[in-house]
Amino acid sequence: MADGEGRAVRFGIIGCAAIACTLFRAIKLAPNATLVAIASRSLSKAEVFKSANGVEDSVTLYGDYESLLDDPSVDAVYIPLPTSLHVKWAVAAVEKKKHVLLEKPTAMNVAELDVIIQACEVNGVQFMDGTMWMHHRRTDKMKEFISDPSLFGELKTVHSNFTYLADSNFLANDIRLNPNLDGLGALGDIGWYCIRSILWATDYKLPNSVIANRNPTFNDSGVPLSCGASLIWDNGLIATFHCSMQAQMSMDLCVIGTRGIIHVNDFVLPFDETFASFNHCSDSRFTEPIIGWRRPLPREEVVQMEIPQDARMVVEFSKLVVGVRDEHRSPEMKWAAITRKTQLVVDAVLASIENEFKPVDVHQG
């Protein structure tokens, strides 16, 4: 059997949140995955999801999560539940030997995430979080550029931001702003992507310290609506990010080296899912006299996509599941390590905010 081939991975979806619609489509588009079950807190909610999304009649519907986890036809589960419920249901799934694709943010803090990761290790199942942009072909091409010393040189700084303007209904009712369901707010919802992009650019080397920016904003329940931070490494590298639910839509990433630079304006969700682009440049200089840029000027690189990034995520996760299920390989734990480092920085940002914006050391732990 060739690497990654074999019987399609049979997915169950636990929870019918809006993002579950995206993953339902992704599973349909992935050639090595199939949806076999959906569970909600009531059968009627599962039926509404089925009707709204054109789910096939062959998919089993459950009115509780436990029944789906007991279904022997389910190999893996996608869990888009509120973050505060992740530990309970991810561990429950893992203990039933289900592989877990867990929506981000993956936990309220790293202590909770460690419970999930340890359960995955003990039970020998695959873990991955739902950070979709990581699986885009453009991400691979950008990594090639910044990994080439002749084009990019030494990494010096990274700047990342993700913002959108939430309406009054969202601010009043969305679970991401309910402290009993997901108290991380903008930091967990969109700051997660910014932090991941910074770690991605640094080959996942954790910063030595984090300093939260002053003047974050919160709702009446104390959930972050906007915040940011500086990440600092002892070798002089520095990165910054900002996330906000109170500003115009933006998804910008800028990675700067001694010789090269990349810019991308839609790094989380490409403008078009059939292709995506980024700008890059090496060895730019001023003209003489200083009235402009001399060549080479920044140029756009376009990357075509056969299937969208969410479907590529499902494909890559499913390949790993097949390796464990059919080829008796050990789970690939690099994804859990990447998730854990992201969570550590999230925790450090919150700790710095709570500590009057003083630096907070970041430890692998």
UniProtKB/TrEMBL annotation:
Annotated ranges, domain Gfo/Idh/MocA-like oxidoreductase N-terminal: 9-128
PROSITE patterns named in the record: PROKAR_LIPOPROTEIN
GFO/IDH/MocA-like oxidoreductase domain: residues covered: 151-262
Residue ranges the record marks as coiled coil: none
Top-level taxon: Eukaryota
Single annotated GO MF: nucleotide binding
InterPro entries in alphabetical order: Gfo/Idh/MocA-like_OxRdtase_N, GFO_IDH_MocA-like_dom, NAD(P)-bd_dom_sf
PANTHER family, A to Z: OS10G0403700 PROTEIN, PTHR46368
Family note: Belongs to the Gfo/Idh/MocA family.
Protein name: Oxidoreductase
Species per Swiss-Prot/TrEMBL record: Zostera marina
